[in-house]
Hints:
- There is one protein chain.
- By secondary structure, the protein is mainly α.
- It has a domain at 54-82.
- 17% of the residues lie in helices and 4% in strands.
- The chain has helices spanning 60-71, 75-78; strands at residues 54-55, 58-59.
- A two-stranded antiparallel sheet has the order 1-2.
- The longest helix has 12 residues, at 60-71.
- The chain is elongated, with a radius of gyration of 19 Å.
Amino acid sequence: xxxxxxxxxxxxxxxQDVNLRRSMFRNVNLxxxxxxxxxxxxxxxxxxxxxxxxxxxxxxxxLIKAEIKRRDLDRRKLRMSDLVDPAGVFVP
Length: 92
């Protein structure tokens, strides 16, 4: 079933025993949403503002930040270590 929900306010809606397999969500606001007993197998979340997301009690935003930092060591060079001396940004 292909059904398009566009420009709809569905805030405070309850979805129970609903199959959303292979669904696509674009430009949606899921803030303050609770998901319980969900199958999130093979789910992809891209280009998102993730803040305050916890899964099984783990702060996911902190894990993402740590992984980005681990993968991209040059990001550290982009941060000013001393706000008084902006020249400290450039590492020889």
